[in-house]
Specification:
Layout lengths: L12 H21 L9 H13 L8 E2 H11 L5 H10 L11 E4 L17 E4 L1 H7 L9 E3 L6 E3 L8 H5 L1 E4 L4 E4 L4 H13 L5 H4 L13 E3 L2 H9 L1 E7 L2 E5 L5 E5 L8 H13 L6 E6 L8 E5 L5 H11 L3 E7 L1 E4 L2 E4 L2 H42 L1 H10 L3 H12 L3 H8 L8 H25 L2 H19 L6 E3 L15 E7 L3 E6 L13 E2 L9 E8 L3 E6 L3 E6 L13 E2 L12 E7 L7 E6 L3 E6 L11 E2 L9 E7 L4 E6 L3 E6 L13 E2 L10 E7 L4 E6 L3 E6 L14 E2 L10 E7 L4 E6 L3 E6 L13 E2 L9 E7 L1 H38 L1 H6 L1 H18 L1
Helix pairs in contact: 2-3, 3-4, 7-12, 7-17, 12-15, 12-16, 12-17, 13-14, 14-15, 18-20
C-alpha cells in the first residue's frame, strides 16, 4: 500500500516569526512575569498557595518538606522548572523580601547577606495565617476556575484575596518589552485608604495620601522626600530615594562611630560592607578606622569606627553617596488588569482590588443563598412529614419499595423529589419532640439568613459595608506598625512658601539695571510735590520702566524685538531706595542689544486670558496667554517685529475688552479687541492705528476699564485725567483716531497713558531719578481735547519719563506697612526717652554715692542702658 504524501503549507517566514514571538510574549506577560491587579499574585505564586491549601498544609497543621510542595505544584499546575517554583516559594517566606510573608518556612531560607537557601529536600514550609485570607471562600464559587495544563484538574484564575496583596507585598517582574516594580506598603494604611475611597468614591490621590503615607519596606530604612511618592501615586512611575538608618555616637575612647541599624530594600548587606571596605582602601572614603558587622537575629547592626578628628557627618554623607546605604527604588506600577498589562496610579490599583472584592462578596452571597434555599426546601419537607407523621408511616409501611414510597409521598403531600428522599432518609430518633424543636430552630435560622442575603444582594451600601467590616477585621488581626520612616528632602521644599507675599515696586533703568523695592519705601505726596530720590543713576542713565507687583507673581519681560522671558518677582534682587539694582543681563539671558520694552505680572498662564501687543509703528496683535507657558531660560518668541519697528507695550485681556492706542503727538484710537483675531506666538500682527506723520509713534497701549479714567502724562510734567466715555469706540481698528491731549509746546510729547480709579495712586519718575507718589484724586476729570494740568514740578534740565499706577490694594498694604514701621520707631523712641529719664532721676537721688564710687555709678548706668536696649 503506497504511503500518503505529506502536505506542506507555504508561509512567510517573517509573518510566522512575528506571530510566534507575539504569542510567546503574551504568554510571558500574562502567564509568568506580571502580577494580577486583583490578588497581586503571579501564576506561580498563586499555584503554590493553592496547591498548599489543597494539600492541607495550613498554618495550624504540621510542616511539610518543600520538595513535596514543589513536586505537587509542578506535577499538577505549573509545568516549569523546579528551581523557578522553589525560588518563588522561598521569596514568599523571606521576611526581608516580603512586607508580610505568606509562607512560614522552617530551615535555611537564605539571608539578607545574599546567602542561598538550603535545597528543598532539607527545608520545610506551611502556609502563614495571612495566606488563608487570600484563599478564604475559594470553595464558594467566588472566582472562576480553569483546567490545568493537562486538562485533568481545575485551578483558580485568581484568588478571592481579602487583603490588598498587590500593594501590601509589592511585586517585581521582567516580561517582554515591559517590567513591573511595585513597592510594598503597610497593611493598616492600605485598609484605611481603601475604606476612605469606598466612602468617598470621588476622592483625589492627595486625599488617599493622608492615609497611605508611602511605601513601607520590610527592611525599614527611610524614604527621603514626599514628592517622588506623590509622583509615583499620581502617574504610576517614580524614583524613590531610600537611605538606611544611621546614627552617630561616641565610643568609649572618645571618638565617633556610625551605627547602621537598617538598610534599603533589596540591598545585599554583605556586598554593601565589602563596597565600603574597598572604598576605604582606595581612599575614596576617608576617616574610617574599622568596619564590623554585629548583626544577629534581633536586627541589623553595622559599626563603623572613625578615626580621631574625622568629621562624622562628612563621612556618613560619603557613605550615602558612594555605597548602597543610599539607593533608589524605581517604581513602575504595572499589573494585569482584565488580561491587559496596565500602568496604574494608586487610586486605580485600589479600585481594582475593591471591584474584585465586590464581585467575590456578591458571588459568595449568591452561592450561600442558593445553599440556604436548598436547605430550607429540605427542612420544609421534614416539617410537613413531622406534622403528618402517622400518615407518612402508613404510606412507607404499605409500600413495597423505596421508589413506591417516594412516589406516594410526592403525590399525597405535594413534595418534591428532594423532600421525599429527605423524609425517607430520616431516622426514628428524629421523631422525638427534641429533634422536632431542632429542625424548627434550624429552619428559622435558615430563613433569617436567606432574608439577610437577599437584602444584602439588593443593596450596594450593605455590600460595601461588609467589605469594610472584613477589611477592618483584617487590619485588627494582622496590621503592624510602619517600619519605613518618611523624611523630607530638599527637593520637597517649595521656596515660594518661604517668601512673604507683599507688594513691591520693580524699576528698570535705561541702561538695564533692575531692582525690587518694598512699596512702603515711597510715601504718598500731594500733586506737585518734589518727590524723593528713587534710584542712583549714572549721568547717562535714567529710570525708564516702573512696575508694581506682588513678590509671588510671575513677571513677564518683553523685549523691544519681541522676545519674552519669565521670572518670579522674588527672584528680582531687592535693593534700597537709592541703589542702582542689578544689571538685567545678570538676571535674564538677553541677547546682545536686547532691551526690555514692557513688564507684565500674572498669577498663572490662564487659557482664558490673552496678551495684546502694540508696536512703535502702530501694529497690534493678540495671542492666548497659555501659549506662552513653556518659557525657556533664553526666552521665547512672542511677536515678530519689523526691522524698523519695536515693541512698546503688552497688556493682558480677557477676550472681551476694549483697546486704546495713544501716540506721542496726543492722538488715540479705541476699538474692541475682537477686531484682533488670536494669533500664534510667531505672528506679526495687524495695523492698530494709522499715524499722521513720520515723527509720530505709539507710546501707550491701554485696556479700557469701566468706571475708570484715562490719565495721560507728558514729558514736561503736565498731564490730564479724562473719562473713557469721551473717547469714541471705533467700528474698526486701523484709523487715525481722535485727539487725546493737545500737542502744546509747554506739554511736550506724550510719554504714557494709564487707566486709573479715584482710590489709586500714581508713581511719577523723572529722567534724573526723582520719584513722586501722588493720589489720582488730586487730578479732576477734564475734557478730551484739553491741555492738562501740572503733575510734577521739574527742574529745567529734567523731564518726566515714566508713570505707573498703583492700585488701592497695593497702596493700602504699603500704607499699613509704613504705619507699622512708624509705630515701631515711635515706640523705640519712647522707650529710649523713658530710660534716659530714669537714668537722670537715679543720678539726682544718688548723687553722693555715685560721686564717691565712680565704678558703681558706671555700672548702674550700664545697667540702665542694658534695660533700655532690652526694651527696644
Amino acid at each position: 500500500m503506497a504511503e500518503t504524501p505529506e502536505e506542506f503549507e507555504l508561509v512567510n517566514i517573517e509573518d510566522e516569526m512575528q506571530r510566534a514571538y507575539i504569542d510567546y510574549s503574551m504568554s510571558v506577560i500574562i502567564g509568568r512575569a506580571l502580577p494580577d491587579a486583583r490578588d497581586g499574585l503571579k501564576p506561580c505564586n498563586r499555584r503554590i498557595l493553592y496547591a498548599m491549601r489543597q494539600g492541607g498544609w495550613a498554618y495550624n497543621k504540621a510542616f511539610v518538606k518543600c520538595a513535596r510542595v514543589v513536586g505537587e505544584v509542578m506535577g499538577k499546575y505549573h509545568p516549569h522548572g523546579d528551581s523557578a517554583v522553589y525560588d518563588t516559594l522561598v521569596r514568599m517566606a523571606q521576611d526581608f523580601s516580603m512586607r508580610d510573608p505568606l509562607i512560614d518556612g522552617q530551615g535555611n531560607f537564605g539571608s539578607i547577606d545574599g546567602d542561598p537557601p538550603a535545597a528543598y529536600r532539607y527545608t520545610e514550609c506551611r502556609l502563614k495565617r495571612l495566606a488563608d485570607e487570600l484563599l478564604d471562600d475559594i470553595d464558594m464559587d467566588t472566582v472562576n476556575m480553569r483546567l490545568n495544563f493537562d486538562e485533568k484538574l481545575w485551578e483558580p484564575t485568581v484568588l478571592p484575596a481579602k487583603i490588598p496583596n498587590l500593594l501590601l507585598n509589592g511585586s517585581t517582574g521582567i516580561a517582554v518589552g515591559m517590567a513591573t516594580n511595585i513597592p510594598p506598603h503597610n497593611l493598616g494604611e492600605l485598609v484605611d485608604g481603601i475604606t476612605h475611597m469606598i466612602d468617598n468614591p470621588d476622592c483625589e490621590i492627595s486625599d488617599l495620601m493622608q492615609f497611605i503615607k508611602g511605601p513601607d519596606f520590610p527592611t525599614g530604612a527611610k524614604i527621603c522626600g514626599t514628592n517622588p511618592i506623590r509622583q509615583m501615586y499620581e502617574t504610576g512611575r517614580g524614583i524613590i530615594k531610600i537611605r538606611g538608618h544611621a546614627e552617630i555616637e561616641e565610643n568609649d575612647k572618645g571618638s565617633d562611630r556610625i551605627i547602621i541599624s537598617s538598610i534599603p530594600f533589596a540591598v545585599n548587606k554583605a556586598n554593601m560592607i565589602k563596597k565600603m571596605a574597598d572604598l576605604v582602601n582606595n581612599k575614596v572614603l576617608d576617616g574610617i578606622r574599622d568596619i564590623r558587622d554585629e548583626s544577629n537575629k534581633d536586627g541589623i547592626r553595622v559599626v563603623i569606627e572613625l578615626k580621631r578628628g574625622a568629621i562624622s557627618n562628612v563621612v556618613l554623607n560619603g557613605i550615602y553617596k558612594h555605597t548602597q546605604l543610599g539607593s533608589s527604588f524605581g517604581a513602575n506600577m504595572l499589573a494585569i488588569d482584565h488580561n491587559r498589562p496596565r500602568v496604574m496610579n494608586l487610586k486605580q490599583m485600589l479600585k481594582c482590588f475593591v471591584d474584585h472584592r465586590y464581585e467575590v462578596v456578591v458571588r459568595r452571597a449568591k452561592y450561600e443563598l442558593e445553599k440556604k434555599r436548598a436547605r430550607a426546601h429540605i427542612l420544609e419537607g421534614l416539617l410537613i412529614a413531622l406534622d403528618n407523621m402517622d400518615d407518612v408511616v402508613k404510606i412507607i409501611r404499605a409500600s413495597s419499595n423505596r421508589d413506591e414510597a417516594r412516589a406516594k409521598l410526592i403525590s399525597t403531600f405535594g413534595l418534591s423529589e428532594l423532600q421525599a428522599n429527605a423524609i425517607l432518609d430520616m431516622r426514628l430518633y428524629q421523631l422525638t419532640g427534641l429533634e422536632r424543636g431542632k429542625i424548627e430552630k434550624e429552619y428559622a435560622e435558615v430563613m433569617a439568613r436567606i432574608n439577610y442575603l437577599e437584602t444584602l444582594l439588593g443593596s450596594d451600601e450593605l455590600l460595601y459595608g461588609l467589605i469594610k467590616e472584613e477589611l477592618a477585621d483584617i487590619r485588627d488581626r494582622y496590621a503592624t506598625p510602619r517600619r519605613t520612616e518618611i523624611t523630607f528632602d530638599e527637593a520637597d521644599i517649595n521656596y515660594e512658601d518661604l517668601i512673604e507675599d507683599k507688594p513691591c515696586v520693580i524699576t528698570l533703568s535705561h541702561t538695564g539695571y533692575i531692582k525690587r523695592v518694598p512699596l512702603d519705601t515711597y510715601r504718598e505726596q500731594r500733586r506737585g510735590g518734589k518727590g524723593v530720590k528713587g534710584m542712583d543713576t549714572k549721568e547717562e542713565d535714567f529710570v525708564e520702566l516702573i512696575f508694581t507687583a506682588s513678590t509671588l507673581d510671575t513677571l513677564l519681560f518683553f523685549t523691544e524685538d519681541g522676545r519674552m522671558y519669565a521670572k518670579k518677582v522674588y527672584q528680582v534682587p531687592e535693593g534700597g531706595r537709592t541703589s542702582r539694582g542689578k544689571a538685567i543681563v545678570n538676571l535674564l539671558e538677553l541677547a546682545e542689544g536686547e532691551k526690555i520694552a514692557s513688564l507684565r505680572r500674572i498669577k498663572e498662564f490662564s487659557e482664558d486670558q490673552y496678551l495684546v501687543f502694540a508696536t512703535h509703528k502702530g501694529v497690534s496683535k493678540k495671542t492666548q496667554l497659555s501659549l506662552m507657558k513653556n518659557v525657556r531660560t533664553n526666552g521665547v518668541r512672542a511677536i515678530n517685529i519689523d526691522e524698523d519697528d519695536k515693541l512698546i507695550g503688552v497688556r493682558i485681556t480677557n477676550g472681551d475688552n476694549e483697546i486704546m492706542l495713544v501716540t506721542r503727538n496726543g492722538m488715540s484710537i479705541r476699538f474692541h479687541e475682537k477686531k484682533l483675531r488670536s494669533m500664534g506666538r510667531t505672528a506679526r500682527g495687524v495695523r492698530g492705528i494709522s499715524l499722521k506723520s513720520e515723527d509720530d509713534a505709539v507710546v501707550s497701549l491701554v485696556v479700557v476699564e469701566e468706571d475708570s479714567s484715562l490719565v495721560i502724562a507728558c514729558e514736561k510734567g503736565y498731564g490730564k485725567r479724562s473719562k473713557f466715555e469721551h473717547y469714541p469706540l471705533k467700528i474698526n481698528r486701523g484709523g487715525k483716531g481722535v485727539i487725546a491731549i493737545k500737542n502744546l509746546e509747554r506739554n511736550g510729547f506724550v510719554i504714557a497713558a494709564h487707566p486709573v480709579e479715584d482710590e489709586d495712586s500714581l508713581m511719577l519718575i523723572t529722567q534724573g531719578g526723582i520719584m513722586v507718589r501722588m493720589p489720582v484724586s488730586d487730578m479732576r476729570d477734564i475734557g478730551r481735547a484739553s491741555a492738562g494740568v501740572r503733575m510734577i514740578n521739574l527742574n529745567d534740565d529734567d523731564r518726566l519719563i515714566a508713570v505707573a499706577p498703583i492700585a488701592k490694594d497695593d497702596a493700602d498694604a504699603a500704607d499699613e506697612q509704613a504705619a507699622k514701621k512708624a509705630e515701631t520707631e515711635a515706640r523705640i523712641e519712647e522707650t529710649k526717652a523713658q530710660a534716659e529719664a530714669r537714668a537722670a532721676d537715679s543720678e539726682a537721688d544718688d548723687g553722693s554715692e555715685a560721686g564717691s564710687d565712680p565704678e558703681a555709678a558706671g555700672a548702674e548706668a550700664d545697667s540702665e542702658d542694658d534695660a533700655s536696649d532690652e526694651e527696644e
